[in-house]
Amino acid sequence: MTDRFDLLATALPELRVLVRKPLGDRRGTLERMLCAEELEALLAGRRIVQINRTFTAARGTVRGLHFQHPPHAELKFVSCLRGEVFDVAADLRRGSPTFLRWHGEILSGGNHRTLVIPEGFAHGFQALEDGCEMLYFHTAAYEAGAEGGVNVRDPRLAIAWPLPVCNLSERDAAHPPLAEDFAGVAP
Protein backbone atom coordinates (compact mmCIF):
# COMPACT_ATOMS: atom_id res chain seq x y z
CA MET A 1 0.00 0.00 0.00
CA THR A 2 2.61 2.56 1.12
CA ASP A 3 6.06 2.34 2.60
CA ARG A 4 4.54 2.92 6.09
CA PHE A 5 1.42 0.69 5.93
CA ASP A 6 0.22 -2.59 4.44
CA LEU A 7 -3.51 -3.23 4.09
CA LEU A 8 -4.82 -6.78 4.45
CA ALA A 9 -8.27 -8.06 3.53
CA THR A 10 -10.43 -10.14 5.87
CA ALA A 11 -13.28 -12.53 5.03
CA LEU A 12 -15.70 -9.63 5.67
CA PRO A 13 -15.73 -7.07 2.85
CA GLU A 14 -14.62 -3.59 3.91
CA LEU A 15 -13.25 -4.85 7.27
CA ARG A 16 -9.48 -4.49 6.95
CA VAL A 17 -6.31 -5.02 8.89
CA LEU A 18 -3.83 -2.19 8.62
CA VAL A 19 -0.27 -3.28 9.37
CA ARG A 20 1.94 -0.42 10.50
CA LYS A 21 5.62 -0.56 9.54
CA PRO A 22 7.73 1.01 12.28
CA LEU A 23 11.13 2.51 11.55
CA GLY A 24 13.79 1.71 14.08
CA ASP A 25 17.39 1.80 15.06
CA ARG A 26 19.41 1.15 18.21
CA ARG A 27 17.46 3.91 20.04
CA GLY A 28 14.02 2.43 19.44
CA THR A 29 11.25 2.95 16.91
CA LEU A 30 8.96 5.50 15.32
CA GLU A 31 5.60 4.22 14.19
CA ARG A 32 3.04 6.14 12.17
CA MET A 33 -0.41 5.37 13.60
CA LEU A 34 -2.43 7.26 10.99
CA CYS A 35 -1.74 9.41 7.95
CA ALA A 36 -4.75 10.95 6.18
CA GLU A 37 -2.79 11.33 2.95
CA GLU A 38 -1.46 7.77 2.86
CA LEU A 39 -4.81 6.31 3.97
CA GLU A 40 -6.95 8.53 1.75
CA ALA A 41 -8.58 5.55 0.00
CA LEU A 42 -9.65 4.05 3.35
CA LEU A 43 -10.93 7.33 4.74
CA ALA A 44 -12.85 8.09 1.50
CA GLY A 45 -13.43 11.72 2.36
CA ARG A 46 -14.04 11.12 6.08
CA ARG A 47 -11.84 12.70 8.71
CA ILE A 48 -10.82 11.63 12.18
CA VAL A 49 -12.82 13.67 14.70
CA GLN A 50 -12.26 11.81 17.96
CA ILE A 51 -9.44 9.78 19.52
CA ASN A 52 -10.09 7.56 22.55
CA ARG A 53 -7.82 5.49 24.75
CA THR A 54 -8.86 2.62 26.98
CA PHE A 55 -6.99 0.77 29.68
CA THR A 56 -8.22 -2.69 30.69
CA ALA A 57 -6.71 -3.99 33.91
CA ALA A 58 -7.65 -7.67 33.97
CA ARG A 59 -7.16 -10.59 31.60
CA GLY A 60 -10.46 -12.04 30.33
CA THR A 61 -12.32 -8.73 30.51
CA VAL A 62 -14.61 -8.13 27.53
CA ARG A 63 -15.68 -4.67 26.37
CA GLY A 64 -18.40 -4.34 23.76
CA LEU A 65 -20.08 -5.00 21.45
CA HIS A 66 -20.72 -1.35 20.54
CA PHE A 67 -21.77 0.60 17.46
CA GLN A 68 -23.47 3.88 16.58
CA HIS A 69 -26.61 4.17 14.48
CA PRO A 70 -26.66 6.49 11.46
CA PRO A 71 -26.24 9.38 11.02
CA HIS A 72 -23.58 9.01 13.73
CA ALA A 73 -22.13 5.74 12.41
CA GLU A 74 -18.35 5.74 12.41
CA LEU A 75 -15.34 4.23 10.75
CA LYS A 76 -12.92 3.16 13.52
CA PHE A 77 -9.20 2.45 13.51
CA VAL A 78 -8.50 0.26 16.59
CA SER A 79 -4.97 -0.50 17.82
CA CYS A 80 -3.49 -2.11 20.89
CA LEU A 81 -0.54 -0.19 22.31
CA ARG A 82 0.24 -2.43 25.28
CA GLY A 83 -0.70 -6.01 26.04
CA GLU A 84 -2.66 -8.31 23.74
CA VAL A 85 -6.36 -8.43 22.88
CA PHE A 86 -8.74 -10.49 20.78
CA ASP A 87 -10.47 -7.74 18.81
CA VAL A 88 -13.82 -8.51 17.19
CA ALA A 89 -15.97 -6.81 14.57
CA ALA A 90 -19.44 -8.19 13.73
CA ASP A 91 -21.26 -7.21 10.53
CA LEU A 92 -24.67 -5.75 11.38
CA ARG A 93 -25.22 -4.05 8.02
CA ARG A 94 -28.71 -4.52 6.61
CA GLY A 95 -28.52 -6.38 3.31
CA SER A 96 -24.84 -7.28 3.67
CA PRO A 97 -23.80 -10.65 2.21
CA THR A 98 -21.84 -11.23 5.45
CA PHE A 99 -24.66 -10.12 7.78
CA LEU A 100 -24.11 -11.44 11.36
CA ARG A 101 -20.67 -12.84 10.58
CA TRP A 102 -17.75 -11.75 12.74
CA HIS A 103 -14.00 -11.56 12.44
CA GLY A 104 -11.52 -11.73 15.31
CA GLU A 105 -7.98 -10.40 15.14
CA ILE A 106 -5.17 -10.52 17.67
CA LEU A 107 -3.93 -6.99 18.26
CA SER A 108 -0.91 -6.40 20.47
CA GLY A 109 1.63 -3.83 21.40
CA GLY A 110 4.15 -5.72 19.30
CA ASN A 111 2.33 -6.87 16.16
CA HIS A 112 1.67 -3.39 14.70
CA ARG A 113 -1.85 -4.23 13.54
CA THR A 114 -4.88 -1.96 13.44
CA LEU A 115 -8.38 -3.22 12.76
CA VAL A 116 -10.21 -0.83 10.43
CA ILE A 117 -13.90 -1.23 11.24
CA PRO A 118 -16.47 0.26 8.86
CA GLU A 119 -19.81 1.79 9.70
CA GLY A 120 -22.47 -0.80 10.49
CA PHE A 121 -20.18 -3.16 12.41
CA ALA A 122 -20.34 -3.78 16.16
CA HIS A 123 -16.97 -3.80 17.90
CA GLY A 124 -15.62 -5.36 21.08
CA PHE A 125 -12.50 -6.95 22.48
CA GLN A 126 -11.24 -9.33 25.12
CA ALA A 127 -8.04 -8.62 27.05
CA LEU A 128 -5.71 -11.61 26.74
CA GLU A 129 -3.27 -10.13 29.25
CA ASP A 130 -3.50 -7.86 32.27
CA GLY A 131 -2.92 -4.19 31.55
CA CYS A 132 -4.07 -3.72 27.96
CA GLU A 133 -4.05 -0.26 26.46
CA MET A 134 -6.07 0.48 23.30
CA LEU A 135 -6.19 3.50 21.01
CA TYR A 136 -9.21 4.31 18.79
CA PHE A 137 -9.49 6.83 15.96
CA HIS A 138 -13.12 7.66 15.05
CA THR A 139 -14.68 9.46 12.08
CA ALA A 140 -17.72 10.47 14.16
CA ALA A 141 -17.95 11.80 17.69
CA TYR A 142 -19.68 9.68 20.30
CA GLU A 143 -23.42 10.40 20.44
CA ALA A 144 -25.20 8.78 23.41
CA GLY A 145 -28.58 8.77 21.65
CA ALA A 146 -27.13 6.89 18.67
CA GLU A 147 -25.39 4.21 20.71
CA GLY A 148 -26.21 0.58 20.05
CA GLY A 149 -24.98 -2.60 21.63
CA VAL A 150 -25.16 -6.35 21.21
CA ASN A 151 -24.66 -8.89 23.97
CA VAL A 152 -21.18 -10.44 23.76
CA ARG A 153 -22.73 -13.89 24.29
CA ASP A 154 -25.35 -13.46 21.55
CA PRO A 155 -26.09 -16.95 20.17
CA ARG A 156 -26.75 -15.61 16.66
CA LEU A 157 -23.21 -14.25 16.50
CA ALA A 158 -21.63 -17.15 18.45
CA ILE A 159 -18.33 -15.35 18.95
CA ALA A 160 -15.61 -17.78 20.02
CA TRP A 161 -13.99 -15.72 22.77
CA PRO A 162 -10.61 -17.29 23.59
CA LEU A 163 -11.08 -16.98 27.37
CA PRO A 164 -14.14 -17.18 29.61
CA VAL A 165 -15.96 -13.85 29.39
CA CYS A 166 -15.64 -11.82 32.60
CA ASN A 167 -15.71 -8.31 34.02
CA LEU A 168 -18.47 -7.01 31.75
CA SER A 169 -19.69 -3.54 32.60
CA GLU A 170 -23.31 -3.31 33.76
CA ARG A 171 -24.17 -1.60 30.49
CA ASP A 172 -22.51 -4.30 28.35
CA ALA A 173 -24.05 -7.14 30.38
CA ALA A 174 -27.48 -5.57 29.86
CA HIS A 175 -27.25 -5.50 26.06
CA PRO A 176 -29.93 -7.88 24.82
CA PRO A 177 -29.27 -10.59 22.27
CA LEU A 178 -30.35 -9.78 18.73
CA ALA A 179 -34.05 -10.33 18.14
CA GLU A 180 -34.97 -13.05 15.65
CA ASP A 181 -36.44 -10.37 13.38
CA PHE A 182 -33.37 -8.10 13.58
CA ALA A 183 -32.87 -6.97 9.99
CA GLY A 184 -29.66 -5.05 10.52
CA VAL A 185 -28.44 -1.52 10.89
CA ALA A 186 -29.58 0.86 8.17
CA PRO A 187 -26.83 2.19 5.93
Verbal overview:
This protein is mainly beta. It has a single domain (5-22, 40-174), classed as Sandwich (Jelly Rolls). 5% of the residues lie in helices and 40% in strands. The chain contains two helices and 13 strands, in the order ββββαβββββββββα. It has helices at residues 40-43, 170-174; strands spanning 5-9, 16-20, 23-25, 28-30, 50-56, 62-68, 76-82, 84-91, 102-108, 113-117, 121-127, 132-138, 147-149. The chain has a six-stranded antiparallel beta sheet with strand order 1-2-10-7-12-5, with no helix packed on it. Strand 1 and strand 2 (16-20) form a beta hairpin. The protein is globular, with a radius of gyration of 16 Å.
Task: Note the topology.
Layout (H helix, E strand, L loop, with lengths): L4 E5 L6 E5 L2 E3 L2 E3 L9 H4 L6 E7 L5 E7 L7 E7 L1 E8 L10 E7 L4 E5 L3 E7 L4 E7 L8 E3 L20 H5 L13
